[in-house]
């Protein structure tokens, strides 16, 4: 469990091009540096007392704390100043080369730079129809930000993006796939052979304005 969690955190930082995770007593700390999320803490254990100690030190708005536990287990740790994020799941898969075919009228553009593989699927008029990226590390490929525009859904474009990213990972010498999935995304990924590894629950510090 801990190796998978660490690999996910590492690959996520590569994908988002932010500093790598730093080991801290409760797990990992990531300096995200974005208005919507300044710092991300990842709990690598289920020790409530350690979690509460960390929570008590947080005073910076948009700080996020994530753990691989059901939300119900974490709710008692947080005050009303913390808001839960949408339900997510940590998922894993063994990656294989894929012959992803874009539907007629669509073109896939693939780029790999700085350890990030990215895919953009364009419609005939050049409109962005679907996209996704993955952070490539020595141990895993962490899929990230896979989206399909509502006007182009139900055409298999998400499957195309996932297949191309899987191929990029295999070329990189990595066959372990990891991602954080929403409830809706989980349904797609399970059809592609991905399996739920654990819940992935987050809370964000949103204190009331003074």
Polypeptide structure, described:
There is one protein chain. The protein is an alpha+beta fold. Strands 1, 2, 3, 4, 5, 6, 7, 8, 9, 10, 11 and 12 form a twelve-stranded mixed β-sheet that branches. It starts with a helix and ends in a 5-residue tail after the last strand. Helices cover 25% and strands 39% of the residues. The protein has five helices and twelve strands.
Descriptive terms for the model:
single chain; 210 residues; alpha+beta; Aminopeptidase; 2 domains; twelve-stranded mixed sheet; 5 helices; 12 strands; 39% strand; globular
Topology:
Elements: H1 2-16, E1 22-24, E2 27-34, E3 37-43, H2 48-57, E4 64-67, H3 71-74, E5 82-84, E6 88-94, E7 107-113, E8 116-122, E9 128-136, E10 141-148, H4 157-171, E11 176-182, H5 183-191, E12 195-205
In short:
The chain has helices at residues 2-16, 48-57, 71-74, 157-171, 183-191, and strands at residues 22-24, 27-34, 37-43, 64-67, 82-84, 88-94, 107-113, 116-122, 128-136, 141-148, 176-182, 195-205.
Could you give a short account of the major beta sheet? 12 strands, mixed
- Decide which structural class fits the backbone: alpha+beta
Task: Write the element-wise H/E pattern from the N-terminal end onward.
Answer: HEEEHEHEEEEEEHEHE
Shape: globular
Mean pLDDT, nearest integer? 95
What's the number of structural domains?
2
